[in-house]
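Morning run. Coffee first, then this:
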Amino acid sequence: MSPSSPAAAHDQTGQRRHWMGVLARASATEIEGRLARLAPLPAHARLRGPETGLVMVRGRAGGDGAPFNLGEMTVTRCTVRLADGRVGHAYVAGRDARQAELAALVDALMLDEAAREAVEEAVIAPLAAAQRSTREAEARKAAATRVNFFTMTQMR
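And here it is:
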């Protein structure tokens, strides 16, 4: 698969979507703690933000019905450029400017093929594992309170 093929571009987009999702769900403290394990971080300059604003959140009735405007949500965005010219972007829910800047910095670092593996191991993979563990614990807790109504109707 050549780097410029549509399949490669789709795969690269999927990978970036994954790491940006992990960064968007992590707190600034978590990202900062993971970044501290890497060698000294490269200098970066802010190109935009961090800026806080609103986006419209859309929903669908029943999950597949007609879309409607559910309401507004606060987001913070930031764009940074590393000294070598790579540019990272981030949008995070809420007003945490530090989280947005750190996520944009990690995004820029992940765009470097040479550094990607180290950043993945030090930052993205541990954050993703912690998030997965939290989701699984919450799912187990919710499952413990589940009521099977079909069984209840058969008991009468």
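Residues 113-144 form the longest helix (32 residues). Good start to the day.
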